[in-house]
Amino acid sequence: MTMSGTDAHLLVFPYPAQGHMIPLLDLTHQLAIRGVTITILVTPSNLPLLEPLLSAHPSINTLVLPFPSHPSIPPGVENVKDLPPNSFRAMMLSLAQLHEPLLRWFRSHPSPPVAIISDLFLGWTHCLACELGIRRLVFSPSGAMALSVIYSLWRYLPMRQKQNSREEDGQDEIVSFPNIPGSPKYHWWQLSPVYRSFVETKGDQDSEFIKDGFLADMESWGLVINSFDKLERVYLEHLKREMGHDRVWAVGPLHQFEDDEEIRGSKQRGGSSSVKVEQISSWLDTRDDHEVVYVCFGSQARLPNDIMEKLAFGLEKSGVHFIWVVKEPINGHVDSTVPPGFEDRVARKGLVIRGWAPQVPILSHRAVGAFLTHCGWNSTLEGIVAGVPLLAWPMSADQFSNATLLVEELKVATRVGEGSRVVPDSDELARVLADSISKNLTNRVIRERVAELGRAAMEAIKEGGSSIVELQSMHNKLATLVSPRNTFKFSGNEEN
Ligand code: UDP
Question: Per the record's keyword annotation, is Glycosyltransferase included, yes or no (predicted)?
Answer without folding.
Answer: yes
